[in-house]
């Protein structure tokens, strides 16, 4: 009798749930996740702050940009691979210009949580950002990546090998700097290959959905696993979950003080996440970061914030003017220098700093902007920053638009959660697979056989936005 009931339940489930191969777009994956998740969990991930204007604008921003494809070129082969932090000691390979945004609490979506995500990332060879607010500790995530079974046992990596596809660790500046520093040290010793410093969250955005749904804390047995104690973040237990977890964050943190500090205490490249203003991008680059993620946190922080894709061109231009970003021609002329990972521009003396400071006044003359003179043996430090974008990327054409406007790669947030909800590791792989196919088709149709050919001329402003798919009306 029990068996019959189970079979009936399975039949009902099969009739309402679409198999992964029937999910053709990231919107399909989201719709499927909505069917499967309890309302409070779905809305925790899907909703934006306040009126959700920015959540909407992130998608509309892409629709207001249109592609102007080139034809008549050989696109029989398409290469979507790229090298991140190219020409530096931190160079990293990725198969796609698509990465996984650092985002907490993956275990809310699937029991395997971050372990499922990292396995999918490794199999699809995409870089994964691991959040400070993950529900699996960073060491276990890194271990799961390294110990992935490979097709031939002879080629299994040694236990100490770093993951074949890079993992980046995301952190916030905490009131307790020694806790921040200990998290950095753990990331370094677990094999993470970059740090992401999120700067758009001195407090967390107010999502009414969480308060209405009474979503105030993690379910029993689930923790923010990177913190040494639960009390650190869980002491109020009222209102919305994010408000309950923000007590640790340091609202007094500033670029001027904390970014040079972070850059000076680690040999990993530091990528600053959550910038939409050109002035902030320049300030972050001047403070010595290696990369910038143009992001409004997927519409979860400041509502009415400009969409990322519309913020990107001005940021790219401001960085270009200051020599922090090279256009294609100057890139080709740039001397190829590989430098020791610990070489770092350090703009203000700090007690934790391991290097003598390089002062602003010591910046090199403007004819040689990508480098700064170093007090260290190798004599120059690359200051070129890599530009990334997230918030609202849902189509391969979005990936191309972001790259044409200056991004090296894009990151995905909510679609990864929805992939987890519909199929754990396989669901996340399906999300990446869909976007890989769409990006490849978009490149072929735009006459781009490799990512170097995705140039500014490919994109025009002028779409009307407010796009509703006719078939969904
Ligand atoms: C449920 C959820 C949790 C998130 N947690 C973090 C986090 O811990 N740290 C962080 O820097 N960003 C976090 N983000 C933001 C993402 O990294 C990313 O910026 C955003 O989701 C990108 O927009 P998209 O969802 O439209 O792709 C989170 C996003 C979501 C949806």
TrEMBL record:
Tell me where in this chain the FMN hydroxy acid dehydrogenase domain is found: 18-464
Keyword field contains Translocase: no
Which family does this protein fall into? Belongs to the FMN-dependent alpha-hydroxy acid dehydrogenase family.
Q: Which GO terms describe its molecular function?
A: FMN binding; oxidoreductase activity
Q: Where is the signal peptide?
A: none
PROSITE patterns, sorted: FMN_HYDROXY_ACID_DH_1, FMN_HYDROXY_ACID_DH_2
Q: Does the keyword Flavoprotein apply?
A: yes
Against Pfam families, the record matches this protein to: FMN_dh (PF01070)
Q: Which lineage?
A: Eukaryota, Sar, Stramenopiles, Ochrophyta, Eustigmatophyceae
**This protein is called what?**
FMN hydroxy acid dehydrogenase domain-containing protein
Annotated keywords: Flavoprotein, FMN, Oxidoreductase
This protein's cofactor list reads: FMN
